[in-house]
Amino acid sequence: MNPVNYLYLAALLFTIGATGVLIRRNAIVVFMCVELMLNACNLAFVAFSRMHGNLDGQIIAFFTMVVAAAEVVVGLAIIVSVFRARHSASVDDASLMKL
Amino acid sequence: MENLIALLVAAPLLGAAVLLCGGRRLDAVGHWIGTALAALSFVFGVILFADMLGKDPEHRTLMQHLFSWIPVEGFQADVAFQLDQLSMTFVLLITGVGSLIHVYSIGYMEHDERRRRFFGYLNLFLAAMLLLVLADNYLLLYVGWEGVGLASYLLIGFWQHKPSAATAAKKAFLVNRVGDMGLSIAIMLMFTTFGTFAFGPVLEATGDTSEGKLTAIGLMLLLAACGKSAQVPLQSWLGDAMEGPTPVSALIHAATMVTAGVYLIVRSADIFNAAPDAQLVVTVVGAVTLLFGAIVGCAKDDIKKALAGSTMSQIGYMVLAAGLGPIGYAFAIMHLVTHGFFKAGLFLGAGSVMHGMNDEVDMRKYGGLRKYMPVTFVTFGLGYLAIIGFPGLSGFFSKDKIIEAAFAKGGTEGWILGGCALLGAAITAFYMTRVMLMTFFGEKRWQPDEHGHEPHPHESPKVMTIPMIVLAFGSVFAGAFFGIGERFVKWLEPVTGFEHGHPPISALTVTLSTVAVMVLGVGLAYVQYGRRPVPVVAPRGSLLTRAARRDLLQDDFNHVVLVRGGEHLTRSLVYVDHTLVDGVVNGTAATMGGLSGRLRRLQNGFARSYAVSMFGGAAVLIAATLLMRAV
């Protein structure tokens, strides 16, 4: 199978994720969309790794997974505590830092 | 012997320290301490003088190195003294007249509760003045120069509860400051030109220095002399300085301090000899001032201010003589000494009159005082005859020589300067006769003051009259003693040099015309003030009289040119500061503020809008990268 097809898929997934980040208000959904974007990147890395015949892309994919896991831990904790304090998970409500 | 020189200065300095730090417990004896230390200084001076007379005229200079003041690489300032014939003359004049005036002040200041402080200041003045004339370099001279300025300020404002006295003191201080700036610039110029400011090396090095630099130094020294000696254009302080107690006017503002400028010029003779342009300016300043002071003296009704005008005019003579070069230096100093005697005597006489007249200074309210104050009348009269140049008295010998030297300057300049000096002699005779007639002759014109106290003119106590008698002796005999056989000229010649002038008209003609204009001046004054009664209220007078009463508009001139000019200058500077400088600064700040106000709107608090800008930015970056790749 032509590895370029994997790149098309990665681009499609990234676009879906980016659109979700921009148009959804629910913080959990936004968060999942961010994960979708990260994994789209991972897919692209692995595809490039395969195309170039070396392991650099796969190694970076592992780094991305570690970063994503750490991000999930911190991000979910923030979302939960914001929800507890404000009874809302909408990202538009959390605009207190505005001047 | 050298070690005595420092003691000359130390004695009055000790007096000043003791009297000013001693506090009230010295009130009872303070005046005696001050007088004794002044007299002690005079005794030291006489001992040194006797020693000096015993030596060969060419080797009379004594040097004393006291200590190194500022020893730095390439800059050496010493506290060292130089006593030569010129300094010796000043030392004797300062300590001699100074001691007499200390004695006089014991009586004059008797009822003043701050008499101790007054004597402290007087001693401070003596110490500073002696330092000025004994210093062996210009920097130490400057210390003395500032010291006498301080003492003068303190003494003019001695009765500082009177606003007029406080203002006069400030005025004197400020005007002097302008002159002091000249002296400090001159010293700096000397240092850059010669690398030193000791008299010996500086004056020896004048031979191989460009004339332009010497002219600059000379003009700056002249500016200094103008400030201290009340010469045009820095003359305006002297009249107001008469607010001080009369002994101060006699000692500082007539006999000694105001002559410091003449000393400075004569001491710097070699610089001026090598800079004819500077010399010419000196003579012009002298000639203008001698007429200026004389004209002012004619119109003043305040006896002390009339004498102040006269002082200015007589110092004008000295400055004129000092500007003439080696033909005039000795005569400048000779006139300085004789003037010290008769002007101090005249001021003490004026003080004695005021003492007897409830401190009234307006001559229009005197009249006929010769019956009430015989001693004052005789001593004042002798001083009067001396100053107008009555043949045989002091002023005759010294002033006549200056007029002769002015003519000997040669050419048109000589005629103009000589003419000014002769005219000055006529006006001197006029205004002094006027003072004499208004004070001691005619009908009595005094009236009860607002409290109904009528003054009871009376002779002053002995402690005041004895100094006046001694000074009157000096006024009568000093000139003949100095002048006959050129004794004074020979005495000063090793220091100042001397050349015989060759006036275009014979010396006898000059003498005769001097006497003639003197008689003319006296006659005119007699016609106006002797034969007619003097009105108690001053008549309106001609335009010139009214201008002269206002000191020939000197203060108005200063006000319009300097005060107004300065105000306009500062105002325009403030305007430039407000519009231009502040405009740039405030404009930058306002622009930045406006810009950041716009930028602030981007910060709307919506996470998704931040995400849009992030994506947008990333897209722009990627597009730019691709574009660069493609190119």
From TrEMBL, chain A:
EC number(s) given by UniProt: 7.1.1.-
Name of the top EC class for this enzyme: translocase
Top-rank taxon: Bacteria
Example of a GO MF term: quinone binding
Subunit-level organization: NDH-1 is composed of 14 different subunits. Subunits NuoA, H, J, K, L, M, N constitute the membrane sector of the complex.
Segments crossing the lipid bilayer: 6-23, 28-48, 60-83
Subcellular location: Cell membrane; Membrane
Protein name per its UniProtKB record: NADH-quinone oxidoreductase subunit K
Topology within the bilayer: Multi-pass membrane protein
Organism of derivation: Streptomyces longwoodensis
Annotated Gene Ontology cellular component terms: NADH dehydrogenase complex; plasma membrane
Described function: NDH-1 shuttles electrons from NADH, via FMN and iron-sulfur (Fe-S) centers, to quinones in the respiratory chain. The immediate electron acceptor for the enzyme in this species is believed to be a menaquinone. Couples the redox reaction to proton translocation (for every two electrons transferred, four hydrogen ions are translocated across the cytoplasmic membrane), and thus conserves the redox energy in a proton gradient.
Xref: Pfam families: Oxidored_q2
GO terms classed as biological process: ATP synthesis coupled electron transport
Keyword Oxidoreductase among record annotations: yes
Catalytic reaction annotation: a quinone + NADH + 5 H(+)(in) = a quinol + NAD(+) + 4 H(+)(out)
Statement: the UniProt record of this protein carries the keyword Lipid metabolism: no
UniProtKB keywords: Cell membrane, Membrane, NAD, Oxidoreductase, Quinone, Translocase, Transmembrane, Transmembrane helix, Transport, Ubiquinone
Family in the record: Belongs to the complex I subunit 4L family.
TrEMBL record, chain B:
Signal peptide: none
GO molecular function annotations of the record: NADH dehydrogenase (ubiquinone) activity; NADH dehydrogenase activity
Entries under InterPro entries matching the protein: NADHpl_OxRdtase_5_subgr, ND/Mrp_TM, NU5C-like, Proton_antipo_N
Subcellular location per the Swiss-Prot or TrEMBL entry: Endomembrane system; Membrane
Keywords: Membrane, Transmembrane, Transmembrane helix
Span of domain NADH-Ubiquinone oxidoreductase (complex I) chain 5 N-terminal: 69-119
TM spans (from-to): 29-50, 87-106, 118-135, 181-202, 214-234, 246-266, 278-299, 372-394, 414-442, 463-485, 505-527, 610-628
Pfam families associated with the record: Proton_antipo_M, Proton_antipo_N
Membrane topology value: Multi-pass membrane protein
GO cellular component terms listed in the entry, alphabetical order: endomembrane system; membrane
Stretches assigned to the NADH:quinone oxidoreductase/Mrp antiporter transmembrane domain: 135-420
BP terms from Gene Ontology: ATP synthesis coupled electron transport; electron transport coupled proton transport
NCBIfam families per UniProt: NDH_I_L, PRK06590.1
Protein name: NADH-quinone oxidoreductase subunit L
Source organism (scientific name): Streptomyces spongiae
Lineage: Bacteria, Bacillati, Actinomycetota, Actinomycetes, Kitasatosporales
Gene designation per UniProt: nuoL
